[in-house]
């Protein structure tokens, strides 16, 4: 089926922000995916020797596949960490574990080829170091959580994670409609929701005001998306599409308004803190301009 493509310079270009706003190229593809093909020679070589070489080469092969998967997942976790202004370090250091597994797999492969000696050790050290240089280390410390109550921060993290789950479900559901325009529309709505989530992350005190938006309203949007996708995939009902798009517009406006209100409240708190500090300085005889 032909699809009509639009963009910034198209005659019917929408006024709403681009679905790609704030997006960066993922690092979880390319080099990380190549790692899944690197161990293939070990699988081939496993069947050219005796039973011990078969076992050792297959162990090395499986370990390298596991290391490749951990590397890709570690890159995804690192990207999620970088995308948030307030984030905790990953609970499990996937990339570091992948580096160690790579070194261990190369040691086993070297041992299978020539027995215990200097070569397997060199392979192990080189593999561990080169993997670490190529893909980096996992984040080893939290960021942006200084001075924030740990319990409150954990509540915010759970609320944001729940919101991300709902957004992912919406993205998966709208694919069933096979309508590129609505896929882009859902992506733009997701950007607005994430703006609200980032505001809450920066100031966990806003969670009480935003919880209904990140929970109840977003859950309703997820369910409505699933129902629309199923109906539209069968009937291509133009009225259903218009109604669903209107719903997304209303939700987006409400999410944006809530975010703006919280930002203004944060600014008011800052102004109050500045005024109080200036009054204290004035009482101490310190002049402020």
What can be said about the biggest beta sheet?
none
When the domains are counted, the total is 2
Number of separate strands:
0
Strand and helix order? HHHHHHHHH
Kindly estimate the percentage of residues that lie in beta strands according to DSSP: under 5%
Distance between the termini: 66 Å
Average the pLDDT over all residues and give the rounded result.
81
Question: Globular, elongated, flat, extended or rod-shaped: what is the shape?
Answer: flat
Q: Report Rg.
A: 26 Å
Task: Name the poorly predicted regions.
Answer: 7-16
Structural class estimated from helices and strands: mainly alpha
| Count of alpha and pi helical runs | 9
Helix content: over 70%
Helices and strands, with pairings:
Blueprint (H helix, E strand, L loop, with lengths): L30 H4 L5 H6 L5 H33 L10 H21 L3 H18 L14 H25 L5 H23 L4 H29 L2 H46 L6
Helix pairs in contact: 3-4, 4-5, 6-7, 6-8, 7-9, 8-9
Q: Could you write a compact summary of the structure shown?
A:
By secondary structure, the protein is mainly alpha-helical.
Walkthrough of the structure:
The protein is an all-alpha fold and 289 residues long. It has two domains: 105 residues, no CATH class; 134 residues. Helices cover 71% and strands 0% of the residues. α6 runs parallel beside α8. About 3% of the residues have low confidence.
List keywords for this structure.
289 residues
């Amino acid at each position: 089926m032909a699809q009509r493509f639009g963009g910034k310079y198209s005659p019917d270009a929408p006024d709403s922000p681009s679905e790609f706003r704030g997006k960066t190229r993922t690092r979880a593809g390319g080099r990380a995916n190549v790692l899944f093909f690197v161990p293939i020679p070990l699988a081939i070589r496993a069947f050219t020797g005796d039973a011990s070489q078969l076992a050792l080469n297959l162990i090395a092969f499986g370990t390298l596949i596991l290391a490749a998967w951990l590397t890709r997942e570690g890159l995804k976790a690192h990207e999620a960490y970088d995308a948030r202004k307030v984030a905790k370090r990953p609970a499990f250091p996937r990339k570091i574990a992948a580096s160690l597994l790579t070194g261990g797999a190369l040691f086993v492969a070297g041992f299978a080829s020539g027995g215990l000696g200097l070569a397997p050790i060199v392979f192990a050290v080189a593999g561990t170091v080169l993997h670490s240089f190529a893909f980096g280390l996992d984040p080893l410390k939290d960021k942006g959580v200084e001075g924030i109550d740990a319990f409150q921060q954990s509540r915010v993290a759970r609320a944001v994670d729940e919101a991300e789950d709902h957004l992912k479900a919406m993205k998966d559901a709208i694919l069933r409609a096979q309508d590129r325009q609505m896929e882009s529309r859902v992506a733009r709505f997701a950007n607005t929701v994430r703006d609200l989530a980032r505001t809450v992350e920066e100031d966990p005190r806003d969670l009480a005001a935003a919880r209904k938006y990140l929970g109840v309203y977003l859950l309703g949007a997820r369910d409505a998306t699933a129902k629309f996708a199923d109906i539209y995939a069968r009937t291509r009902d133009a009225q259903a599409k218009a109604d669903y798009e209107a719903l997304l517009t209303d939700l987006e406006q409400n999410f944006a308004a809530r975010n703006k209100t919280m930002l203004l409240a944060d600014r008011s708190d800052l102004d109050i803190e500045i005024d109080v500090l200036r009054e204290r300085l004035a009482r101490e005889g310190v002049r402020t301009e």
